[in-house]
Amino acid sequence: MRTHHCNELREANIGQTVTLIGWVNSARDHGGVIFIDLRDREGLTQCVFRPEENPEVALQSHTLREEDVVQVTGRVVARLDGSGNAKMPTGAIEIVGAALRIVNKADVLPFQLDKELSNEDLRMKYRYLDLRRARMGRNLRLRHTITSAARRYLDEAGFYEVETPILSNPTPEGARDFLVPSRLNPGRFYALPQAPQQYKQLLMVAGLEKYFQIARCFRDEDLRADRQPEFTQIDIEASFIGQDDIIKIVEGLLVAMFKAGLGVDVPNNFPQLTYREAMDTYGSDKPDTRYGMKIIDLADLFASTGFKIFRATLDGGGVVRALNAKGFAGLTTGQMNRLNEIAIQAGLPVKTLAFIKCEGGEYKSPLWKFFTEAEQAALIAKLAIAEGDLVFFGAGALDTVCTILGRVRSEIATMMELTKDSTAFNFLWVVDFPLLAHDEETGGWGAVHHPFTRPNPDDLALLEAGDYAKVRAVAYDVVLNGYELGGGSIRIHEKDLQAQMFQVLGVGPEEQQIKFGHLLDAFRFGAPPHGGLALGLDRIAMLIAGEESIREVIAFPKNNKGADLMSHSPCHIETKLQREVYIQSTWKNPQHAATTAAAPAPQS
Predict the structure, then answer these.
(1) Are residues 296 and 267 in the same domain?
(2) What is the rounded CA–CA span in Å between residue 308 and residue 191?
């Protein structure tokens, strides 16, 4: 239906007769001469319809409006002197229309495609129109480009792409499962995979050695800008490898993806921080290192303090730490309230953050008078406090203090726009995560990553002794500018060690067989040492595209309530269909209930 696409013609094509087809991007009437910009996926070409060239076609062109689908045949000519458009690749030429076929007329659009739209619900309802916009087309093309680069890299590295089931068993991956009733097995349910974790380990037992998959994953959890109920990850698993091998593979993969997507050369050998270093220094296991504002330990400075709060905290095994928000002393009341709110959400036991503000040569704080002159001088020196600085303090349990100050640090960076114009890509690895986390409510222990994560061999004695809080995992996350791009671990491949791990997690032998019997059985038949990692493809595409939400790089995303406003899903299912899969909904239609209540009682 065309000889060229709409971003193909140049001055070398002048004199040729061509046919283009696409959407009317814009139409302009210049004294009876109609100009349109014709658009397809590749770009724009200007077409002109003049009465003196073809009166019938020119008359027909007067009916055109935006988003009509048209086919134009005509001659390529140079634009008149001074009328070229250097911003368009096709801006030196235009098509003089000799034939025009209106393939399909478009109704009036619900919004203009050439303007950004703040009403996200409207964008989601008409997503097929939203995707016509240049920005969205660019994002999906970019996603395709980096996905193709990932496939090429992994193929060249010897990985096989293997698909794993979507309908499977529930697995403990840290979120609720989406359940699917089975018609052929009444009362039984499948679960959509939160990740292909068990299947990729079974592929290692099967001897494939190197596996990858562009995997669809599903998690029923609260949503945010970088989270969707269904998402895509680049899933990788390999045998006969260690942590350093996985890190080398993934660094090369990310280098290839960023080179394909942005044309930038990301250096290999990303820096590494232990989990403890990341939390102690930045208050986050996915720190953004594009700015400083590090958390400083003040235990030595206040070792002999008479300030009761700090004294009691340190004597009780807690910590005293601070961060200096340089130049932020002029924050507004609203900003301070916001920081207090974030700190309380992170575990601050009081209503306001403790602080010291340096303004007009004075140190303004309710705390300042409780410090000795030596402590004041040491504090100024250690935190490099200068005019205009604002210092926040945290005192209490180590992890709580780090988390509070880490959240405050991140919010201050946003308020101060510390990364607004940054073009840096600060990749890093966080390693040596804790293997287990204590559940204060149940008193039990849960896996920080998942129950198949291998304990650090140096800490096996601690695991045996029940000193679970000190056991490290052979686990690793790759981080970019405050976003976790992916995480993984070396896996447990021995049946006995896996059973021991389940026992620590409170999963008894009977439950182990019900939930994981297939995996434990597989480990009996010569399971190789193996490990892997999964990268969040949506999140990587978002960062490469310079977007702030993964919805901007997903063709048909859900909104913050997990709903697709375009297709009206999720939806209510008719009672007949529910019966076919042996389920019954407890939801009642309010309108139906009101009608039923108003109806007279049947006669006996």
Answers:
(1) no
(2) 54
User: 523, exposed or middle or buried, with CB in 10 Å at 0-12, 13-18, 19+?
Assistant: buried
Residue 227 β-bridge partners:
224
| Pairing verdict, β 272-274 and 427-431 | parallel
| Residue 389: both structure tokens together | 């600085």
List the CATH number of the domain containing 323.
3.30.1360.30
Average pLDDT, stretch 292-299? 96
The parent domain of residue 55 ranges over: 11-104
3-state secondary structure of 446: strand
Look-up of token digits 């102690």: 280
Q: What is the pLDDT of residue 603?
A: 41
Query: Amino acid letter at 104?
Result: N
pLDDT over threshold 60, residue 602: no
The model's pTM: 0.91
Q: What sign for the dihedral angle of Cα 412, 258, 222, 573?
A: positive
d(CA 95, CA 99): 11
Domain tally for the chain? 3
Q: Are 237 and 201 in contact (CB under 8 A)?
A: yes
Distance CA 585, CA 151 (A): 43
Quote the Cα angle for 423-428-430, to 5°: 145
Residue 328 to residue 337: CA distance in whole angstroms: 14
Sign of CA dihedral 262, 263, 265, 269: positive
Contact 533, 236 (CB under 8 A): yes
Q: How far is 301 from 396, CA to CA, in rounded Å?
A: 16
Q: Is residue 386 part of a domain?
A: yes
Q: Please list the residues that pair with 77 across neighbouring strands.
A: 94
Whether residue 227 lies inside any domain: the answer is: yes
Closest CA to 477 of 549, 535, 399, 402: 535
Give residues with Cβ within 8 angstroms of 538, minimum separation 6: 226, 228, 231, 232, 550, 553, 554
Average pLDDT over residues 491-513: 90
Q: DSSP assignment of 486-541, as one string?
A: EEEEEBP--HHHHHHHHHHTT--HHHHHHHHHHHHHHHTTTPPPEEEEEEEHHHHH
In this structure, the number of other CB atoms found within 10 A of the CB of residue 587 comes to: 6
Does a cis peptide bond (omega within 30 degrees of 0) precede residue 229?
no
Distance CA 582, CA 40 (A): 48
Q: What is residue 248's three-state secondary structure?
A: helix
> For residues 569 and 552, what is the distance between their CA atoms, to the nearest angstrom?
19
Confirm if 56 and 48 have CB atoms less than 8 A apart: no
Give 298-345 as a DSSP string: -TTTTTT---HHHHHHHHTT-EEEEEEETT-TT--HHHHHHHHHHHHH
Asked whether residue 596 carries a pLDDT value surpassing 80, the answer given is: no
| pLDDT score at 601 | 41
